Amino acid sequence: MKVARFGQIIILACTMWAVTGCQTTTSNSTLGDKNPARAVQLRTQLAAEYIRTGDLDKAKNELDQALKINPRSIEANLMMGVLLQQEGSPTNMKKAEEYFRRAISIDAKYPQARNNYGTYLFQQGRYKEAIEQFKIAGTTLGYEQRFSALENLGRTYLKLDDNASAEQAFTQALQANRDAVISRLELAELLYYQQRFTLAGQMYEDYVRYTGQTNQGARALWIGLRLARARNDEMGMKVLVNQLRAQFPDSPEYKRYLQLQNSSEAVWK
């Protein structure tokens, strides 16, 4: 089965720490002498904010200072990996992996490092290696973003056409967090392909309730359209076709609809 395109797996860079009051680095200039641990924390938080706003040079300066104070700071090493990955050049992508691996070597049980390294490996197309990292993060009870690691795991299985394992991962993500909307959408499509249209429809409707009818992307509309057709909901199908045409006329999903609109196959792919 050809799997529909997926959005970029989440890189949890700037949600790792709450960043407040980060206006200037001058207050940190001598903090390392008095409280090195606090200085590393503040500089890493400030770097996260700079990454969020796209100021990668300032983020790099802050992280260099943090790692100068404490080269074994797992948070600073991890954030440096995220920074270099976001910059994206071949040289920095290679360096990013070194920082992710260093963070894991400092604390192999730190789930955020596993999740972010898995994201890096996914981006590189190293899916089997990514699965190993997401599995560790996804089975770490108490990890606040455990559901996102499981969603990442499910998406990676889809890349390998392992739909059964993907379905299991998305189901576990929903068990970990009932608000895991990505899992609802992915399960809707997987169940649709199995012709379990009632349950697939419930997943899709839950997804729409969480995101809103007008906030759906092209892929979500395409899933809803196919489910409406499978359930002989002509009015629902018409609404979704019109929305897809109006908002995403050049999308692969709408072009696929035009190709299949007269097809009698039970399941449109």
TrEMBL record:
Pfam families for the chain: TPR_14, TPR_16
Source taxon at top rank: Bacteria
Stretches forming TPR repeats: 40-73, 147-180
Keywords: Repeat, TPR repeat
InterPro entries in the record: CellSynth/LPSAsmb/PSIAsmb, Pilus_4_PilW, TPR-like_helical_dom_sf, TPR_rpt
NCBIfam families in the cross-refs: type_IV_pilW (TIGR02521)
PANTHER family given in the database record: LIPOPOLYSACCHARIDE ASSEMBLY PROTEIN B, TPR REPEAT-CONTAINING PROTEIN PA4667
Name this protein carries in UniProt: Type IV pilus biogenesis/stability protein PilW
Taxonomic source organism: Acinetobacter populi
